[in-house]
Amino acid sequence: MAGAQPASVLDRYFGITALGSTFRTEVIAGITTFLAAMYIIVVNPAILSKTGMGFPAALTATVLISFFGSCAMGLYARNPVLVAPGMGLNALFAFTMVLGVGMPWQTALGCVFWSGILFALLAALNVRRFVVEAIPANLRYAISCGIGLFITVIGLVNAKLVVSDPVTVVRLAHLSPPTVTFLIGLALTTVLVARRVNGALMIGIVVTTLMAVPIGRLWGDGSGYFPKEIATATLVNFQGFFAAPDFSGIGQLDLLGALKVAYLPFIFVMLFTAFFDTLSTFMSIAEAGNMKDRDGNPRNMRQAMIVDSFSVLISGPLGTSPANAYIESAAGIAQGGRTGLTAVVCALLFLPFLFLSPMLSLVPAIATAPALILVGVFMMESVARIEWHRMDEAIPSFIALVMIPISYSITDGIAYSFLAFVVLKLFTGRVKEIKPAMWVVAALAVLLLTQM
Fold it and tell me: Which spans are transmembrane here (predicted)?
C-alpha cells in the first residue's frame, strides 16, 4: 500500500511492502520455487557421477552451491531468483568434456573455475548493460515467451505425457495411472490458479504428491520416471531421513591442467553459455514479473550478474559444474515473489538436504510438472507485444520463440535469433538498427554454435 511504513527489519531490507508483496507471499514463493527445482539435488549428481565423481560428493556440492548462490542472489542482488547447477552445463561438463574428449573430471572443474574468472570480469566491467541495451524489445518479448514454452515442454516431458517417437519425433503417451494422476493434478492446479488462490502452485504440488502415493502400491507402475539404476514401481518413496554429507569433492580441481590450449574452447563455451543463460533468464523473469528498473531493464541486473559469476567461480572449488540463475524461479514469481527474501527462503530449504537427501524421493516429477506447465502460461503474456507486422523483427522473434523449446536449449535458441536479426537487418537496408554490441553478440553466437 502507498505510504505504508516498513514493519520489520526484513521489510526494510528487502523492500517487501514497497514492492507490493507480503512476508507470507515471499515465503510461499520461496517454497514453490524450491519444490519446482529441487530435482537438481539428485539429477545433477546423477549426471556428474557418470564422469567418475562420487555421487554423494556431487550431491553435497550441489546443495552447497545452491545455498550460497541463492543466498547471495537474495541478500546482495535482492532478486527472487534461485541459483543452482545449470542443466545443460552439467551435460556439457559430463558428456562432452569428460566422456567425449576424455578430460579428467578434476581438469573439467578447473575449466569451470577459469570460466568463472572471465565471467566475473565481464560482470565487473558491466558488459551486460551494453548487451541488454543492444537487444531490441521484440526479441526480449520473444525470448521471454520462448523460455515459457521451454518450461512447459520440460513439465510435459517430466510428466511423460509427451514422449519420443521414431516416426513422429514426439507424441502423446498412452494414458496410465501416473499420467492420469498428473492430468488430475494439472486440472486441480489450473482451477486454483484461475480462482486466484494464494499458493495455488504449491498446493497443486502437495496434492498431486499425495495422489501419487498409491501408484506402484495399489495400481500402476512408476519405474519409468526414474533412471534405470534406481527405478522403483512406486513413485513416492520413503528411503529414510538421514544421509551424511560427503565433502571429498571440495578442492579437487586441476587449475593448471585446465589451461591447456586444447581445453580453452570449453572454457569459453562455458562462459558464453552461463552469460547468455543468466541474461535471458533475467530478461524473461523481468517481463513475467514486471520487475524492471526505470530504464525498462531487468531490476538489479548488474548485481545479479555479479552473483551469477561468483556462483560459477565457486562451483569448481566446491566440486560441481557451473551454477546459474534458474528459470524455475518463475514458479515462485508467479506466486507473487518479488524480493530477495524469496531466494533466501529457497536457499534455506536446500541446506537441510545436506543431511536429509533421502527425503527428496517423496516428491515425484508428476507433482512438479503442473507448476512448470502453468508457469509457461504466465510467461506468454508478452507475445502480444511483438510487432508481428514487421517481418525484420517478427522473423527473429519467431525463431527465438520456436527454437528455444525445440532445441531444448535457451542459449542455442537465443544465438540463432540474434544471428537472424543481424542478417535480416543487414540485407534489408536497416543496418543502422544494429547496435555495436549486437555485432559482438552475434559473433559470439557464431563461435558458440560452432563449438556445440
Answer: 27-47, 53-75, 82-101, 107-127, 139-163, 175-194, 201-219, 262-285, 306-327, 339-356, 363-386, 398-424
C-alpha distances in Å from residue 267, one per residue of 111, 254, 272: 5, 13, 9
Give the CA count within 13 Å in the CB-facing half-sphere of 303: 17
CA-to-CA distance for 399 and 407, rounded, in angstroms? 11
Which pLDDT belongs to residue 26? Answer: 95
DSSP secondary structure, 10-43, as one string: HHHHHTTTTTT--HHHHHHHHHHHHHHHTTHHHH
What number of residues does the chain have? Answer: 452
- With CA atoms as reference, report the closest residue to 320 among 142, 56, 72: 56
For helices 340-350 and 23-37, the axis angle rounded to 10 degrees is: 50
pLDDT at 55: 85
Other Cβ atoms less than 10 A from the Cβ of 364: the count is 27
CA distance 443 to 446: 5
Structure pTM? 0.77
Strand pairing partners for 169?
165
